[in-house]
Structures are given as C-alpha cells and as structure tokens.
C-alpha cells in the first residue's frame, strides 16, 4: 500500500492530500491527534520517522482546528482592539466533542485498512479527550492508546475539572486565556500577540525547549479559539470498552502547560477507577516533544508497537 493522509477537513467535500510512501500491511498503523490550538502540522517531524520504519501515520485537523478553524473578526481588524478581541463571541462555539470523536473514528477505520487491521491511537494534550472517546467507541480497532502529556480524564469528569485540581496548580497555560470563556463560547489565546510578556508565557507553557525558529513557525499555525465543548464534555470511558485497550502515558517532566504532578494524578486516578495499569514512559521535555524530541518520541511509539506485537505473538503460540 502506498497511501498516506497528511490531513483533512470535516466538510463533506473534504479533499485529503496524500503522498506516496511504502508501508507494511503486517504492521499496525498510527493515528496522531493534535492538541488544543494546534493542527496536523504538529506531527510533521514524527510522522516521517514512523513512515521510514514502515508504518502508516495518519493525521488530521480536528473539527474547529487548523484548516477548519474560523477566527473572530476582531483578530484581523486594524488597529487591533484587545477589548473587542476579548469579548467577541467565538465562531467555533458550536463545535462539539462528538464531532471530533466521529472525525477520528473515521480516520481510525481508514488507518486500520492500511496496516494489520489494528491502530495505535496517539493524542497530545487536549487531544487526550478525543482519543479516550474514540477508544470507548471502537476498542476493537485499537492495538493501544497513547497519551503524550495528554488529558486522560476519569469517567464523569471534564477537562476543566482536572485543570482545576490542585495537581495542576502550577500550570502556566491558563494565563494565556483571553476574555471570558463562558461569554465567548471558547477558550481563546492570542498566538500572534506582539506583547513580549505574553509571548514569553506562550513559550514557557508550550515550547520551553524548542528552538526559536520552530516556535515562530508553530505559533504562526495556531488557531485562537478552542470550543468549550471539549473542555466541558464529561469523559464517558468504561472498564468494559475503554478499559480493554492497552494504554500508555508519555510523561513530559519539564511540562508547564500540564505539570508532571497533574499528569501523574490523571494516570493514578484512571488506573484506580477503570482498573488495569497504564504503562508510563518518560521524556525530559516540555509540552511539545514532537518538536523538541521527535526522534526520542518516535522511538517510544515504535517500541510500543513492538511490545504489543510481541505480546500478541506470544498469545498465539
């Protein structure tokens, strides 16, 4: 097979760009889900490494993200009015978590057809909410689910609930939020801000160990509004479905968007409520190892495939 999806939109007439690669039908495929305010380009350094090792690696822009995002009109008006920007209702307020879940379910089904029928589903940061929901819906299609400093939220709780837990008290990312999320219907940031203090906080939150040139490129691709639906939709994971999928958590020790204490709290809480044990891995990185340590991150992902492939072979003997 020589098919690879580099990204897609959530519109019915979406066009999926593909490039020719050589992938193995005997290996599981990867589906990589970006985090809040990011898009498929977050994986531009990881996906090629996985491809080189014979894996199909599929990415997308979630509904409301990347090519599917619409900015508030006040963002482009000049002179820029920060008060108007902070108060304008979000064009993305109507995007739901279910839309995002269904978009990834569709991609997982496509990915399963490219490899051995099973998918390793990876989610970064807020993308953790989506991969949890997908694992609950299609556990039979997944070889494993992997969180990269991700929101692995216990059943019945929301992302916002976890973010307000004491283990998250040192998180810097809430300092980036612009306006009242309830009033505007979204959690808004200003990636293009020229304020030095704000830009420093953005770097410290997301990209502390990333070269300046890469930070400039990535921030130019961020969208400003994340619908509140993702933060307010309660996790609905169950032991009977989600709990049957092997789960991994890649801890990012220098993360200041989702502090290590918060990462470890989520792992412990889900393990105690769902049962089973989350396998943890550790990177000495900030919130974005896909930029700062793509080789090390890809090695962990590849080793997760190797581990579960070996276990499957052992079971078949």
Description of the molecule:
The chain is α/β, with parallel strands linked by helices and 317 residues long. It contains 12 helices and 8 strands. It has helices spanning 47-52, 82-87, 97-114, 127-137, 159-163, 181-184, 196-206, 212-219, 228-232, 260-274, 289-292, 294-316; strands at residues 29-33, 57-59, 119-124, 142-148, 186-188, 225-227, 247-252, 279-283. The strands form 2 sheets. A 6-stranded parallel sheet has the order 2-1-3-4-7-8, sandwiched between helices. Helix 1 links the parallel strand 1 and strand 2 (57-59). Helix 3 (97-114) crosses helix 4 (127-137). The longest helix has 23 residues, at 294-316. It is globular and about 65 Å long. The two termini are 28 Å apart. Mean pLDDT is 92; it is low at 1-18.
Please describe the topology of this protein.
Layout: E1 29-33, H1 47-52, E2 57-59, H2 82-87, H3 97-114, E3 119-124, H4 127-137, E4 142-148, H5 159-163, H6 181-184, E5 186-188, H7 196-206, H8 212-219, E6 225-227, H9 228-232, E7 247-252, H10 260-274, E8 279-283, H11 289-292, H12 294-316
Parallel strand pairs: 1-2, 1-3, 3-4, 4-7, 7-8
Antiparallel strand pairs: 5-6
Helix pairs in contact: 3-4
């Amino acid at each position: 097979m020589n098919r690879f999806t580099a990204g897609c939109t959530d519109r019915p007439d979406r066009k999926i760009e593909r490039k020719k690669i050589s992938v193995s039908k005997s290996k599981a495929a990867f589906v990589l889900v970006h985090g809040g305010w990011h898009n498929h380009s977050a994986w531009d350094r990881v996906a090629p490494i996985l491809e080189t090792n014979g894996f199909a690696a599929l990415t997308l822009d979630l509904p409301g993200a990347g090519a599917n995002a619409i900015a508030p009109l006040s963002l482009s008006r000049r002179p820029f009015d920060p008060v108007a920007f902070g108060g304008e209702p979000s064009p993305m307020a109507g995007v739901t978590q279910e839309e995002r879940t269904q978009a990834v379910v569709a991609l997982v089904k496509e990915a399963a057809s490219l490899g051995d029928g099973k998918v390793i589903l990876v989610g970064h940061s807020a993308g953790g909410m989506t991969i949890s929901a997908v694992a609950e819906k299609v556990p039979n299609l997944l070889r494993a689910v992997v969180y990269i400093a991700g929101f692995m939220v216990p059943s019945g709780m929301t992302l916002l609930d976890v973010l307000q837990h004491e283990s998250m008290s040192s998180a810097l990312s809430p300092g980036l939020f612009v306006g009242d999320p309830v009033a505007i219907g979204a959690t808004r940031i200003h990636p293009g801000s020229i304020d030095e203090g704000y830009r420093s906080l953005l770097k410290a939150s997301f990209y502390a160990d990333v070269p300046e040139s890469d930070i400039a490129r990535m921030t130019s691709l961020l969208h400003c509004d994340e619908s509140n639906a993702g933060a307010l939709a309660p996790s609905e994971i169950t032991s009977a479905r989600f709990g049957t999928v092997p789960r991994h958590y890649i801890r990012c020790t220098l993360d200041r968007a989702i502090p290590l204490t918060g990462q470890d709290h989520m792992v412990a809480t889900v393990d105690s409520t769902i049962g089973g044990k989350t396998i943890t891995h550790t990177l000495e990185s900030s919130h974005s190892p896909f930029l700062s340590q793509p080789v090390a991150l890809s090695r962990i992902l590849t080793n997760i495939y190797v581990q579960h492939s070996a276990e499957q072979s052992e079971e078949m003997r």
